[in-house]
From TrEMBL:
Localisation per UniProt entry: Membrane
PANTHER family (UniProt xref): NATRIURETIC PEPTIDE RECEPTOR 3-RELATED, RECEPTOR LIGAND BINDING REGION DOMAIN-CONTAINING PROTEIN
GO molecular function: peptide hormone binding; signaling receptor activity
Signal peptide: none
Residues covered by the Receptor ligand binding region domain: 76-298
Keyword Membrane in record: yes
Listed InterPro entries: ANF_lig-bd_rcpt (IPR001828), ANP_Clearance_Receptor (IPR052612), Peripla_BP_I (IPR028082)
Membrane-crossing residue ranges in chain numbering: 37-56
Source species of the chain: Champsocephalus esox
Name by which UniProt lists this protein: Receptor ligand binding region domain-containing protein
Annotated keywords: Membrane, Transmembrane, Transmembrane helix
């Protein structure tokens, strides 16, 4: 067996499909910006000799690009093109094939996202995604039947770690609930609630995160959405106050740190109700999956909003 680059050691690829590797273990990578994340995944695909017989190896980049404005700002086509061009132009990776990509649209509703995924069988040789944990198990079973690998950063379903049942599934980041558990254990924060915005993808994420934390032995006092308007949002915050000795509020929605408007509104309402004074810790869940900008840029939000965001 050929030498494998260190970041990809621990992965054994087997497949009867001429272009398709199957993962036998669970490699994880450090959190990277979307372009670098794609680059490392695509480099991993090229590392293995079973792909040499293919002239073109196509990677499907799956996500809710059309229906989610924040996801769309990731510029998946531009990121994939940069990664593919860099790999194809690297003479050290000349394996007699060309890497290509296709952007696959993932509907925002879980049921329609699964239906759409069924039609992706012949569109790509490997998939990066899905982002919606609501159909990760079903998608992984389909990929097992197709003998095609799935690299996912959004699937938080603990059952996917069963290698015999889901041999074509691999995580690209550490299991998010384990990261949360380590942080909560370090600060001795035992009681949490998990809230989400109203989209299917975030409702399903909140449910899976709560299940994973309960498996670690943490009491999750409440799992709910923030509501559709200020009245429902206030009602959700009242439920949190009435849920007992809650210390941490895990927010499954687009972070205000990258422009998430619903989280900004939620934090402002929490501030109005006096919940941002230090009693509760507000943790944005989505920031576990990517690197936040760290350049020296000054922002001048309104004082009220700045105080609310300071509770993160």
């Amino acid at each position: 067996m050929q030498n494998i680059h260190p970041p990809f050691r621990g992965a054994l690829w087997e497949s009867n499909h001429p272009c398709m590797p199957v993962i036998k273990s669970r490699p994880t990578f450090t959190t990277l910006p979307f372009y670098n994340f794609l680059l490392w995944v695509l480099l991993g695909v090229l590392t293995f000799p079973c792909c040499v017989r293919c002239l073109i190896f196509k990677v499907g980049v799956l996500g809710p690009w059309n229906c989610d404005p924040v996801q769309n700002r990731a510029l998946p086509a531009a990121a994939a093109r940069l990664a593919v061009n860099r790999i194809n132009g690297d003479l050290n990776l000349d394996l007699g094939l060309k890497l290509d990509f296709i952007i696959l649209q993932e509907p925002c509703e879980t049921s329609t996202a699964l239906t759409a995924f069924i039609y992706n069988e012949n569109k790509a040789d490997v998939f990066i995604g899905p982002t919606n944990p609501g159909y990760c198990v079903a998608a992984s079973l389909l990929s097992k039947n197709w003998d095609k690998a799935i690299f996912s950063y959004g699937c938080v379903n603990y059952e996917l770690d069963w290698v015999m049942g889901y041999p074509t599934f691999s995580r690209t980041v550490p299991f998010p609930s384990e990261v949360l558990f380590i942080v909560l254990k370090y600060f001795r924060w035992a009681s949490v609630v998990v809230i989400s915005s109203n989209e299917d993808i975030w409702r399903d994420t909140a449910a899976r995160v709560a299940t994973a934390l309960r498996r670690e032995g943490l009491p999750v006092g409440l799992v709910t959405s923030i509501g559709m308007n200020e009245t429902e949002m206030e009602s959700t915050l009242r439920k949190i106050q009435e849920a007992g000795e809650i210390r941490v509020i895990i927010m499954c929605m687009h972070s205000v740190l990258i422009g998430g408007e619903q989280q900004a509104t939620f934090l402002l309402k929490a501030q109005e109700m006096g919940l941002t004074s230090g009693k509760y810790v507000f943790m944005p869940y989505d920031t576990l999956h990517y690197s936040l900008p760290y350049t020296n840029v000054s922002f001048s939000p309104p004082a009220k909003q700045q105080q609310a965001e300071g509770s993160l």
